[in-house]
């Protein structure tokens, strides 16, 4: 049931043809590739990104299963660009938010001794 919902959401992204996404073999290949990538990276002690593994599994399965390959424009704008810009946006947001929260902590008189921090 969850896989159907994921595939339905993914089908609208346009990375591969809708007919390819509907094929259970495509979903199985993408899931196996993702799972094996995460398992291997974990076993070898490499950093693991399930998002990147899933994208790799989808692209690999799409390249093999689709007669026309993958839509590279959609891959770049719909998948790669958000993966590249989200850490930059996070850093910028944190950098802007930290001074405000720090000032609020000082105004409230919260010190290292009164903080229930880790």
Topology:
Layout: H1 2-11, H2 18-22, H3 24-44, H4 50-65, H5 72-107
Question: Describe it for me?
Answer:
The chain is mostly helical. The protein has a domain at 2-71. Helices cover 75% and strands 0% of the residues. Helix 3 (24-44) packs across helix 4. It starts with a helix and ends in an 11-residue tail after the last helix.
Task: From the structure above, extract its key features.
single chain; 118 residues; mainly alpha; 5 helices; 75% helix
Low-pLDDT stretches: none
Output mean pLDDT: 86
Order of helices and strands: HHHHH
Name the beta content range. under 5%
How many strand units? 0
Query: How far is the N terminus from the C terminus?
Result: 39 Å
Radius of gyration: 21 Å
| Major sheet details | none
Which overall shape is indicated by the principal axes computed on the Cα atoms?
elongated
Please estimate the helix content.
over 70%
Total DSSP helices: 5
Secondary-structure content class: mainly alpha
Outline of this structure?
The protein has helices at 2-11, 18-22, 24-44, 50-65, 72-107.
């Amino acid at each position: 049931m969850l896989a159907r919902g994921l595939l339905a959401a993914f089908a609208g992204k346009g990375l591969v043809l809708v007919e390819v996404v509907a094929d259970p073999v495509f979903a199985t290949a993408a899931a196996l590739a993702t799972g094996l990538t995460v398992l291997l990276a974990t076993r070898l002690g490499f950093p693991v990104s399930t998002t990147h593994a899933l994208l790799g599994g989808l692209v690999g399965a799409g390249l093999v299963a689709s007669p026309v390959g993958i839509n590279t424009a959609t891959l770049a704008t719909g998948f790669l660009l958000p993966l590249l810009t989200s850490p930059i946006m996070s850093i910028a947001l944190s950098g802007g938010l930290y001074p405000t929260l720090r000032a609020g902590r000082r105004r409230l008189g919260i010190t290292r001794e009164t903080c229930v921090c880790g």
